[in-house]
Amino acid sequence: MTHAEFAGLAAAHGFGKVYFLAPGKYELGENPHRLCADVPAEYPFASSVCCLVYPYLPFGPAERIPAYYLASNKAYFGMKALIAELQQLGIPAEKVEIPLKQALEEAGIGVELKTSLRAIPPFGTRIVLMTIAVGGIPPLRYDERIPSPCAVCRRCSEACPMGAPGENGLDLRKCMRLRMESADHPDDIRDNQVTFIGCEICQYACPMNANLLKDEPGEEARAAFDIRRLIAGSASAARALVGKNMTSNGKLTAEALAFAARDSLLPKEELEEAIREASASPFPAVRSAARYASGRIAESAEEN
Ligand code: SF4
Ligand code: SF4
Known about the structure:
Structural class: alpha+beta
Bound molecules: iron/sulfur cluster
Strand content: 5-15%
Radius of gyration: 21 Å
Helix content: 25-40%
Largest sheet: 4 strands, antiparallel
Strand order of the largest sheet: 1-2-6-3
Order of helices and strands: HEHEHEHEEEEHEEHHHHHHHH
Number of strands: 9
CATH architecture of the largest domain: 3-Layer(aba) Sandwich
Number of domains: 2
CATH class of the largest domain: Alpha Beta
CATH topology of the largest domain: NADH Oxidase
């Protein structure tokens, strides 16, 4: 199979670009995500590690439905379908997880930004990256490094409510995106969170994304992320759209309750009833969100 034929197969699953990287060895140090440190040893059939780029369009900046997580779920299933297709064609292919930022930096592809996100033109940072080890297709050389715009730009620093991007890069202890992996969020995140599951605020501000069009969530996503539905604990439809890994232990219900209280999305009596029910939830995150929501009601009563 040629590189172009491979890219054509990948495009049918939504991947806008494919990079064919040399299988590498990496110094990993602490390795909590169990990345592969030695591709040639662990995937001896691999002639390339294919980095699949799944581009997506952002929604509006006030949208609570997370464009990234909808896309990452589609990209995951697109990758699985591509692997199955390759295997049917007799081409050895397996999912592999490597330290991708390091691999792309070494290969000279795109640019790492102050937000620790990678931008790959013309998609900006609005990409999901997947990697598969593949046999029979040689790696290619790239010269697509672009100069970092970050030295003369402060837009993400000005946009970030947590003060996370600074002159020396991203403060990992402050960034919401990196502190939202568990279901239960601290109150400073509940005060500032815009989208379910993650944070995309700096990506709206970043000039690397300035030329991207905006999309709208479809009806299915709107129905699945209905605030009342999530507060009632019916999160299975939303979890099917964004993936189950990042949404366990009542996470979406807890987030919906915090949004409803902070942004006055429900009448007071309805919210109070939801808080009573959430206070008895088996999930600590939902009980914690109920406490936060009660505090919000008390604060607005004091203000009035
Ligand atoms: S992801 Fe959110 S919290 Fe993190 S740097 Fe960007 S705007 Fe700030
Ligand atoms: S907003 Fe500016 S400083 Fe921040 S990541 Fe984008 S280009 Fe870099």
